[in-house]
Amino acid sequence: MRHPHTRTTRRRVVGALTAGLLCAAGLATPSLAAPAHDRASAPGLADGLALTPPMGFNNWNSTHCSADFDESMVKGIADLFVAKGLKDAGYQYVNLDDCWALPRRDADGKLVPDPARFPNGIKAVADYVHSKGLKLGIYTSAGTKTCNSAGFPGALGHEYSDAQQFADWGVDYLKYDNCNNQGVDAKQRYTTMRDALKAASRQTGRPIVYSICEWGENKPWEWASDVGHLWRTTGDISDNWGSMLSILKQNLPLAPYAGPGHWNDPDMLEVGNGGMTDTEYRSHFSLWSVMAAPLLIGTDLRKASPATFGILDNKEVIAVDQDPLGKQGTVVSSAGGRWVIAKEMKDGSRAVALFNESGTAQRIATTAAAVGLPGAPAYTLRDLWQHSGYNTAGTVAATVPAHGTVLLRVSADPHWAARPPAVELGLDGSPLLEAATPSTLTSTVTDLGRTSARRVSVSLTGPDGWTVRPASPTTAAALATGRTLRTAWQVTVPPGTPTGPHGLTLRTSYRSPAGERVTSILPLTASVVVRPPAGTSYLSDLAWLSATSGWGPVERDTSNGESAAGDGHPITIGGAVYAKGLGAHAPSDVSFYTGKACTKVTADVGLDDEKGAKGTVTFEIWADGTRVTSTGVLTNAMPARPLTADVTGAQVVHLVVTDAGDGNDSDHADWANASLGC
After folding, report:
1. Do residues 370 and 352 lie in contact, with contact meaning Cβ atoms separated by under 8 Å?
2. Is the pLDDT at 642 greater than 80, yes or no?
């Protein structure tokens, strides 16, 4: 089933599983029980292809069918792979997506490359890509037409002819989509193309990696390990936090089905396309790597920033994805949006992702034993984004920024003592600051190592004009294992400072027992806030602290609409139209600062009547981390339901919508007339 508002008829976005916001209630992501014969031990195609997840580029996320997609672009990407070192980092495939062909086959039933986009044909492009030591990929659909609304020819009924054309052109990779499939059984359609590719390979000697793109609709992880080399597990990704998060949660439980030659594919990378922050993109890249996902760049590298190249070219993170053991990472814990995901590596180490789903910095901690490492006196811990190594007595922990990921590689290394002790930086409490009102924040510096940190100092700095003064000691002669230097800081925000997020920097410096100087920096975010006015206010008229939505942004006084901001419609539930409220898409979470000065939240809630909206949702109101009230499951057949919560004394209130576990991708959820009494 497709999202009713998706761009062209091509792409769909699937809502999160029940685990979507259950982590906010302290519940771990559920595991899926895989039948033994379907697990990672399955032999796959046994043809030696895709023994590690494919890496490369696909144009769709950045160009769709625009005029930018042409021979010049494809050659330019191949050139950049070489010039920027991406080829050396492991990226191989330069893949064409939809719109490369003319809308009609020729008189002999052959596919015809669009002469405006590819005037020299596909073989010439393949030859150019091969001359760079790279490989070329192509796209078609397991239906009568492809997914684009223009309806380019699909391969259903033409599998052997098309596969032969691809092989003759020098194609190395086929992405096989799922549109216009005429109701033909998925396993049959995809198996026929597998056999056609094998036949073409025998004739030409050109093996072709086979990417099944049926969006997880028929659970290909249960049957496709001997059909394709990788299979999509979800609908299409979009360049926003909610989409990436939803897909992550759908793909994580499928770890038992992945392995060399047969991979779960949570879709292409959005890194660099502009819809997320660099912190979020680092999370995206880290999490795809710890899931052993294919790494297909989805941004136009000709326009990419140095920061984008820095993410895509992180060889230590890529090594996690490309580890030859071929294990997909599994969830160790996920309570409160604090995720620990661990991946077994061939050398016996563990890659450990400490991922913070929430909108505020959080401490995330685990142990070497919990991620599967054997008992040892101490361990070596390598930070794969900071490119630095430490020793730890067994605790693996960090304060992780909002939407951030700390990616570590932890091993029972006998040479741990040669490295300085790991030191954890943290900040107690939530940094919500009112202008002109002094606040106290407390920093912590904790020695996690087996050895002592010596000559420890700490500093906290804020934006220009802010007053940040220590109110307790900022140094310690030494910190033994597990000991903490706690420092109170009085922080005053100048009057007139704009509300919203502002950066703080916590920094520590210390020496190892061998005298090595180590500096560690933790970027933090403080929110400058204003208490709501006395009386009753519509929440859509107040500034929120944070807002996440499963599809598009949260909208004020309109429904959720499409994926762009401001494209909603009048809020309508059960035929009743409301002038005020918040329009979201499950799963969603909107938080407001109430400053312990408010008493009640009220709203009429339900699924919007917006065209195509359906599914099931649950509306919840949380106060300072505690769920105060919930509607239970609502459907689009129900009228608006009144919801009231007592939030007396709360500092922060959250309006949360879950998809009630149906995984539906059309949960347009409205908080009509949402009001706050203070």
Report:
1. no
2. yes
Q: How many other CB atoms sit within 10 Å of the CB of residue 291?
A: 29
| Strand pairing category for 588-593 and 388-392 | unpaired
Closest alpha carbon to 363 in 336, 383, 387, 326: 336
422-to-112, 426, 521 alpha-carbon distances in Å: 59, 13, 13
Q: Measuring CA to CA, which residue among 558, 556, 553, 564 is closest to residue 7? A: 564
Coil, helix or strand at residue 161: helix
Sign of the CA dihedral running 616, 621, 625, 627: negative
How far CA 496 is from CA of 434, 465, 499, in Å, comes to: 10, 11, 9
Which residues, 6+ apart, have CB-to-CB distance to 563 below 8 Å? 5, 7, 238, 240, 551, 552
Which of the residues 236, 267, 323, 608 is marked catalytic?
A: 236
Alpha helices in 428-522 (DSSP H): none
Q: Tell me whether residue 236 is one of the annotated catalytic residues.
A: yes
Q: Helices 121-131 and 159-169 meet at what angle, rounded to 10?
A: 50
In the residue annotation, 127 being an active-site residue is answered as no
Q: List the beta bridge partners of residue 588.
A: 549, 657
* Nearest C-alpha neighbor of 573 from the set 674, 671, 655, 644: 671
User: 154-199, pLDDT tens digit by residue?
Assistant: 999 999 999 999 999 999 999 999 999 999 999 999 999 999 999 9
The string of pLDDT tens digits covering residues 366-376 is 999 999 999 99
Helical (H) or strand (E) element with 526: strand 517-529
257-277 pLDDT, tens digit per residue, is 999 999 999 999 999 999 999
Burial call 512-522: b when 16+ CB within 10 Å, e when fewer = beeeeebebeb
Q: CA-CA distance, 61 to 59, in Å (whole number)?
A: 6
pTM confidence score:
0.89
The two three-digit tokens of residue 128, written as one number: 């150019």
Considering the candidates 97, 98, 162, 177, report the single residue annotated as catalytic: 177
